[in-house]
Amino acid sequence: MTEIEFLSWVRGPGFQIASVIFVFGVIVRLFEILMLGRKANLAEANGSEMSGGVRTIFSRMAPESDTFKRSRFTIVVGYIFHIGLFIVIFLFAPHILLITEVTGVGWSALPTPIVDMAAVITMIALAAVLLHRVKDPVMQYLARMEDYLVWLVTFLPMVTGYLAFHRMGLPAPSLLALHILSIELLMVLFPFTKLMHAFTFILSRWYNGAIAGYKGVRS
Amino acid sequence: MKKHITEAEPIGDDDTLGAALRRQGVSRRSFLKFCAATASMMALPPSMVPAIAKALERAKRPSVIWLSFQECTGCTESLTRAHTATVESLIFDSISLDYHHTLQAAAGHAAEEAREAAMRENFGKYLLVIDGSIPVGNPGYSTIAGISNLDMLLETAKGAAAIIPVGTCAAYGGIPQADPNPTGAASVADLITDKPIINVPGCPPIPVVITGVLTHFLTFGTLPELDQLGRPKAFYGQSIHDRCYRRPFYDKGQFAETFDDEGARKGWCLYKLGCKGPTSYNACATTKWNGGTSFPIESGHPCLGCSEPKFWDGGSFYKALSIPTTEVARDALYAGAAAIAVGSALGMKNRASSKQAKAEHQKVSVDDLNKED
Predict the structure, then answer these.
(1) Do the Cβ atoms of B102 and B189 come closer than 8 Å?
(2) Residue of B227, B323, B335 lying closest to A24 (CB–CB)
(3) Domains of chain B, with CATH numbers?
(4) Where are the alpha helices (DSSP H) in chain A?
(5) N or C: where does chain B have the smaller number of CB atoms within 10 Å of the terminal CB?
(6) How much is the pTM?
(7) What is the pLDDT of residues B205-215, one digit of tens each?
(8) Interface-testing mutation among A2, A5, A10, A11, with chain B (most B C-beta atoms within 10 A)
(9) Is residue A47 part of a domain?
(10) Does some domain include residue A57?
């Protein structure tokens, strides 16, 4: 297989397979969660479930002060790499083109030097959280193999994308193909790992907020 | 990979390249200018210019046999249709082109005799230039004087000092090899493994790249440094994207969306129109075409990536590199619909099993616990 054939495969059948698994997996898992249902609450409502739920989805974006004091590193670095990932994934022109092609929705891109800088910061932050996970005894106690796998499939598209953008190490078609392949790996694993939090955080925050809202208390 | 192939011939021979150039009326000044341009293109230090000039002066006109197989003659056109007689074309005229069935006057058996004579006289020393791919599936698709392309290639390659497949067809199979490859087209490197091969791909390749490779061979008697696809790094070392004058627009995020919008008129980046510059290695953006006039991107058309293997089968020329080549949106929709059905079914099953568990649940009373069996 030549490098151009490799690139054609990842842009063609490879991406097709990954997309089908990704969409199928995410929707099946969301349906399973949504259909769990809840027991009818016989207590009288003291407030609205909906407003409490929706508010909590956003209010949990800001860390609570005690939590922040305890896990300053995790929260700050976590924010940095999540924002970095957002910039790199959604504000880089070639990525927007892909999203527009598949969904029909598009928006303006950031200049590439800014995306490039965000990519470097994100990779450093990702390396830092891995180091923290390896060094910290509490994190060590909590960590499972899946956590390292999830880290790897997030980091690989970043590093291959950076190399492909700068054309370093290998010929450009191979670099681009490896980058796309690493994203396909991420897409395939996404629905079946903790990466699902990108969707489920909304459900869990809403649920917590809704319980509190029904009771008429803040969450 | 460097292999020593031939020694420069002694001075004083009427048949040297220097003598041939003087006969053509090329001044010393323009000859040295060519040497300097070649040195800079091959990323050699200026101190190498006199060495190149000396070597070219003294070089015996090498015998070149040019075989044309499944091709469109575009590669030959690229070399011969220069608007003015450039030093490059004179250098090319000044090799001893002993066989080129498109250009030579002789035809039929007389032409074949010329090839055989050149092979006999220069056995082990001649350069073999090839354009076009070789039909291996059915040799009947392309024959010359009743000889199949494969037989002619194998026979002529035996005495060649080096082989230069010119154009993407000869280098990688090119358009004849495009899916479904009806002739079973193969590249030179697919068939010949025991000779030094310098691929000069492109559809067509840039003339100055061909003369540059010949100059390197005449000057140093060695093969230039090649990349992993057998291309001279001096010319194929950088991607079109990295040397493109429209690159600043890519970096700023300014793209032409169609061929006639404001971005296209302002000369913005053609990435969204399918430019393959980021994955294509060639010298177009630096040496340009038609005597340095322009190159395809400068004329407002995205790069097709013609110097890369399988460029014809790499998806639409007009789809951006980051866009999948298959109908992903449609498949995702089907997958989504199937997932809703499967997800609902699984949800129902889960509900049913929890309902069943509830129904089968037996309450345990204090009496039950106190019961002694």
Answers:
(1) no
(2) B335
(3) 17-234 (3.40.50.700), 238-346 (4.10.480.10)
(4) 3-9, 15-34, 49-59, 65-70, 72-90, 93-103, 112-135, 137-142, 145-166, 172-189, 197-215
(5) C
(6) 0.82
(7) 988 888 788 77
(8) A11
(9) no
(10) no
